[in-house]
Design a protein that fits this description.
Length: about 240
């Protein structure tokens, strides 16, 4: 059976939890997330985090000036994968692996190619109870380095991080945030198991988990814990 969660991602989840529990600021946790994206997502050279605040998309963290510049350009021209992740209903992720070959955001591509080394980009939305509240944005300096595997890595990272970032923005207690992050991590493990057992993609596996949760009238994390517990050795 394939690994349920890459060890590096598990380490990042623990690091985020430790930062929250130690009383670190929202900014410190957001910066850690952006650095983690560069380290963990294949092909990612720069990363940023946008949140919607008072109706505006605001960059709250960036791995470097290149990522911050790309966010500024998106807001200036009014189009791009990060804004789409915040504003459009589907799909969940918005990306262009090769900007020189053309993409759905021609004005942005022209500016990015002229003013930055970035040649590929993607945006992954953060949700809070179904509402689109932000986006993790990843950028590559080499065409076609953001692959399907890269998108999967970024999707998982976004799912785990969204629990902490949204809750911290609301000012929730550290113990609650840590518990929420661990719960989200358990859901990720269960989704991985279902993907392996039933040959499903991530979206279908999550839908299966949600359906069972509804049918059994149990919280999603409780169903996830049962799935993981049942499929442990000796479970």
């Amino acid at each position: 059976m394939p690994s349920l969660m890459p060890p590096e991602l598990s380490d990042t989840v623990r690091t985020l939890a430790d930062l929250v529990y130690a009383g670190e600021s929202f900014e410190a946790v957001a910066d850690t997330l952006c650095r983690a994206a560069v380290e963990l997502v294949d092909g990612c050279d720069h990363a940023s985090l946008m949140l919607r605040r008072r109706g505006r998309a605001v960059t709250v963290a960036a791995s470097d000036g290149v990522a911050a510049t790309c966010d500024d350009l998106e807001r200036e021209v009014g189009e791009g994968p990060c804004l789409d992740a915040l504003d459009e209903d589907a799909p969940h992720q918005h990306f262009c692996a090769d900007l020189p070959e053309g993409c759905g955001w021609p004005r942005l591509a022209q500016r990015v190619l002229a003013e930055t080394p970035v040649r590929g980009m993607a945006g992954f939305r953060l949700r809070d109870d179904g509402a689109k509240v932000g986006a993790l944005n990843v950028f590559s300096d080499t065409p076609d380095q953001l692959t399907e595997h890269s998108l999967h890595q970024a999707t998982l990272l976004t799912a785990f991080a969204s629990v902490v970032l949204v809750a911290m923005d609301r000012g929730q207690e550290a113990s609650t945030l840590r518990q929420g992050l661990e719960s989200n991590r358990e859901i990720g493990k269960a989704v991985g198991l279902l993907m392996a057992m039933h040959d499903l993609d991530q979206e279908a596996a999550f839908a299966m988990l949600a359906r069972v949760s509804q049918e059994m009238n149990l919280k999603l994390v409780e169903v996830a814990a049962r799935v993981v517990r049942t499929h442990r050795p000796g479970g």
